[in-house]
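Summary for the funding panel

The consortium committed to producing paired sequence-structure records for every protein in the target list. Below we show the first two records in order, beginning with the earlier of the two.
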Amino acid sequence: MAIPDLRIPQGLLLADAREVRVVARSEGFEGAEEEAERVVGWFGERPAGVACPRAHFARPFGRKHVAVVTVAEQPHDALGFRFLLLARDLYRHLGDPFAVADRYPPDWAATGTLPDLAWPLETLPPRTIEGVQAVLKNGDAPLLLGSAQVLVDGGRVVLERSAPAEELLRGLWQLLPDRSRAELWPASFAFAADLGFDAVVLPVLPPDPSGVRHTEDGLRDYPQSPYELALQVAVEGGDQRELDHLFARRTGGDTIRLALAIIGGATLLALLSKFVL
């Protein structure tokens, strides 16, 4: 297996009522400033009276990277945005933007040139039965389990809160299969829904013309499906082996790609046998 690009360029942006500007960046962040400024703009306009003491989000950044972003209040009613740019292959191996951000705390006082960071030649620690049990015991278990099943089923989770829901989103990301974590995009807070997150907390919910968005009660009462049921059984039974199996499961996209590959292979074999005969 090829080793992914471990370099992590970083950039620090400041947004206030007048402008968005880059105040510090590493060498590898050069050329990414314009897109980073757009991402900050799409984060949304701060509603009156809403604070953002600390939040995190992750989303694709260009064709080759994923941005893991920490957002926090700064002096003079400004917001700071610290960007970490991970190669997509590296992010697929990790899948937990909260753990990535925690490993590299931002220096909000930095200006000028920053160092490019590098991920060590290791994966994140495996999730344990004890850790998942703690998430469900200390959090809103019905909301967490229902939200996890909705995401596994291909839906979106959109919640209304007046402040970032860090603990909730961090807990939710501990319940998802590895591939889902690497392919879905969370935000523990945003001011608008323009960045297309799969799980997001907003101060005000946008209109839902389709009428298909789950309410919070609807997420708690979401019909129990195979993944949620198997997860509960593994956690309640303390079955680490079954938990590992669940986290390694294919996503719906994986299944479709596998089916297409099988069909394509069968078609190719049929054509080759026709020419050979």
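The next record, for a separate protein in the list, is shown here:
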Amino acid sequence: MAEKSAPSGPGEHQRSFSGRAAANQANLADSLAALADMAYESAGLTDLLTRVAELAVQAIPGADGAGLTLLEVDRADLIVKSEAFVRAIDDIQYGIGEGPCISAAATGQTKRSGELGIDPRWPLFGPRASALGVHSALSLPLVVTTGILGAMNVYAHAPDSFDNHSQNCGETFAISAALAVQNAQIIDQTTRFVGQLETGLKGRGLIDQAVGILRRRLGVSAGEALGQLKEMSDSQEIPLVAAASSVLKDAVRRRQADDSTPSVPDGRG
């Protein structure tokens, strides 16, 4: 007769719980360390935000996937995800303008749900998310001293996947994540500004060259030449820089044509 195993006692349960808690804390610590290391990475903004979303899944117990939404004044919201199903859920949320991430970003407060399908806070979003097999959500605002940068969405397929411990881990992670996102955003904005400045300087140089060509060709002042260039821009419905480029290309074609024309002897020997 097979010997029955003794039922596990409270001590074994406590050891199991302690082991899970230690593993969770280790995962959170590793994720926070990875966030700190991101300050030395040279990846683009989208790649960095995606990495933050991936680290959120590692840091927050119960998470199956995460997404991150960055709000910016001068361009469309930037949305990334760690798993494909997150994109489908967030598309629903932003498509109807309702959901935990939108609420978290608007209020600056964490939003948690273990039964999205029947959550009265999001009567349109919740049932649709539930129909796709996503029942739990934890949305964390990304808050810095200057305001709210956006929000991080953490999802799970099973109901009631996020407890108080999960929320505490998420909120701890979100503090560091917000700083990492802010740094990445500043670098991206600076890079874009430098690019725009370089483009502007290049455009100014083209305009100045075109004005010089028109002055010599037409025998007019700099102001009159610039007026001619603006008229060309308006009549052709093209930017001033494009009109200047057209003048320069025409000048090159004329020079090439002159160089290719054979000289005619003057008859003097």
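Regarding this second record: The CA atoms of residues 66 and 154 lie 4 Å apart. The chain is about 60% helix and 10% strand.
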